[in-house]
Amino acid sequence: MAGRDAPRFSSRQIIHFPRFAMKNTRYVTRTLYAALAVLVAATMAVPSAQAQMYDEPLTSDRPGFSNAAATLQQGAFQTELGYSFANTADVFGDESASSHNLGQLLLRYGVTDAFELRANVGSYEYQEVLDPSLTNPSLTDPETTYEGGYFGPSVEAKARLFRNETSTLSAFSSTLLPVQTGFYDSNPDQRAIQTLALLLDGQLGTGVSLTINGGTQFYWDGGVQEDRQFSALFIPTLNFAINDQVGAYVGYYGEYTEFANTNFVEGGLTFLANENTQLDLNTGYRVDDNLDQFFIGLGLSQRF
Q1: What is the overall mean pLDDT for the chain?
Q2: pTM reported for the whole predicted model
Q3: Is residue 4 part of a domain?
Q4: Model pLDDT for residues 214-257, shown as the tens digit of each residue
Q5: Is residue 1 one of the residues assigned to a domain?
Q6: Residue 45 has pLDDT above 60, yes or no
């Protein structure tokens, strides 16, 4: 399948997806165009003559919330990065925000054909928060505050357990390190977060495949509340090859806890610029009763 074989799984960082009120669509469009121009320029800056030849087609773990079961070939190095804009409002409509998430940088290296090491460098997020509780009584409009922060890196690994002609099964581990900055650093209860999951890719027919991630997330220690907050993850994604260069996907992200659950639906397109370069466009919407949330983004995957 050209383009996208499976989406990307983002660990607990999804909980921190920005809050927003879409009030300036022209501004959003200009920002997306600018980000796309940067990604295209980065693609053109990579000399194709320096790219190695590989037996396997390019498989990226972006866009999307899930990870593909496929691992990189031995000696392969791949970078994946992107930008997203998101809007979120609370269920009462009292607070809303617009947010820009830049980076999403994932570095992958194939140690063997069945095992890869990964460094998820993370992202810097900038957001504008519209909070009526901060309103000056002498003013008509609520006060807007501006804040930014770095969410933190993850150390990851993926190991292939099984593969035949139609399916692949892998194990995935990710440890999010508690080194946040800015408004993310305001939480006094910062702890490392562990993600463990099984990743399954299955071919359903010509140009159609299904990816399923299932696993758990938890804090390494109980923190000030003495609660490691175990949660279950279920992330299915249906992938389509439109032609040799263009792919599409639709998916669902579910995180289930003892209290509030997190549910997203998502979709997107990928474009295979060459055998080692992929561009993507993605969007998603939260479908539970906890937040009114929407995001749109784009990205680049480059294999060396």
Answers
A1: 82
A2: 0.81
A3: no
A4: 999 999 886 666 677 899 999 999 999 999 999 999 999 999 99
A5: no
A6: no
User: For residues 239 and 209, is the Cβ–Cβ distance under 8 A?
Assistant: yes
Q: DSSP per residue over 189-238, as a string?
A: ----EEEEEEEEEEEEETTEEEEEEEEEEEESS-GGGT----EEEEEEEE
Domain residues for the domain of 41 are 11-303
Q: Is residue 3 a part of any domain in this protein?
A: no
Q: How many domains are there within the chain?
A: 1
CATH value at residue 276: 2.40.160.40
Q: Each residue of 73-98: pLDDT tens digit?
A: 999 999 999 999 999 887 665 677 88
What is the C-alpha to C-alpha distance for residues 244 and 251, in angstroms, rounded to an integer?
Answer: 21
Q: Which of 178, 121, 184 is nearest to 150 (CA)?
A: 184
Residue 81: inside a domain, yes or no?
Answer: yes
Query: If you count them, how many residues does the chain have?
Result: 304
